[in-house]
Backbone:
């Protein structure tokens, strides 16, 4: 299978994720869509690594994996803190920052 | 064979991604993302990235998605010239854990250490954000008062044990529960 097809799949997934970030309002689903976008980037990195026969792309992909795991931990912590303070679970309602 | 696998996994990955944003229930969104991740791991395997595929399944579909499911249940609702596009010739050991380890601990040591530090920061941040502060929120009862247990008559303070020696200015009705000014334990007094 040509590498171009992998890149096409990657672009499709990235577009779906970006559209989800813009469309959906629940911060949980927004976080899921961020995961989609990071995974699309991962797929492109792995595809390029295969194309060049160079495993350094794998290192990049694993680093992105670590970043995504930390982002999920922090993001879900923020969602739990919002729920505990009885804030609206809606990214359109959260417009102000307080100390 | 590779084409069929690519078609199945690619279709599954895109369908899973669409399912994440189309499904209304966040729980189904998470399950759809799990399917998407598994299909993506199959694509990684087709690209000879075995270690990344295993890490993807273990880290994402295992740990991260369990975290997601718990939170959803808690919150609820809602330059150079490019080579040929068919890829470089496969050499033995490409993408294997040994090669990844050599790269990580050799050329990319800084990235490795930064990733470790980032994971530590993420863990500490998650604990800090979800910690409870200052007792039960939304409750104006002082913590000491909730721990109070009604005591039998005559087993309170020394002043009570010595008969009739109550502090001035306090009510002396029998069985009346008086909370002292300093927020100390309540006492049951006799007249």
Residues:
């Amino acid at each position: 299978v040509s590498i171009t097809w992998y890149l096409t799949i990657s672009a499709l997934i990235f577009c779906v994720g970006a559209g989800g970030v813009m469309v959906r309002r629940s911060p949980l689903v927004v976080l899921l869509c961020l995961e989609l976008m990071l995974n699309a980037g991962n797929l492109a990195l792995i595809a390029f690594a295969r194309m060049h026969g160079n495993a350094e792309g794998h290192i990049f992909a694993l680093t992105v994996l670590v970043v995504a795991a930390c982002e999920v931990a922090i993001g879900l912590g923020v969602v739990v803190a919002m729920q505990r303070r009885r804030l609206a679970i809606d990214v359109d309602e959260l417009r102000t920052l307080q100390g | 064979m590779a084409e069929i696998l690519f078609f199945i996994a690619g279709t599954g990955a895109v369908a899973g991604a669409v399912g994440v944003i189309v499904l209304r229930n966040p729980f189904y969104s998470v399950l759809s993302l799990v399917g998407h991740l598994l299909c993506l791991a199959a694509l990684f395997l087709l690209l000879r990235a075995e270690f990344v595929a295993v890490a993807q399944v273990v880290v994402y579909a295992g740990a991260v998605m369990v975290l997601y499911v718990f939170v959803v249940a808690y919150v609820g609702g809602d330059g150079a010239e490019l080579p040929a596009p068919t890829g470089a010739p496969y050499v033995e050991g490409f993408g294997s854990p040994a090669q990844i380890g050599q790269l990580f601990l050799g050329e990319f040591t800084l990235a490795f250490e930064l990733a470790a530090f980032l994971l530590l920061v993420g863990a500490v941040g998650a604990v800090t954000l979800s910690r409870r502060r200052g007792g039960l929120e939304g409750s104006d009862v002082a913590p000491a008062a909730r721990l109070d247990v009604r005591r039998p008559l005559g087993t309170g303070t020394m002043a009570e044990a010595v008969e009739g020696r109550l502090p001035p200015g306090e009510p002396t009705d029998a069985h009346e529960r008086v909370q002292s000014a300093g927020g100390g334990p309540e006492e049951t007094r006799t007249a």
Remarks:
- The helical segments of chain A are 3-23, 27-52, 56-84.
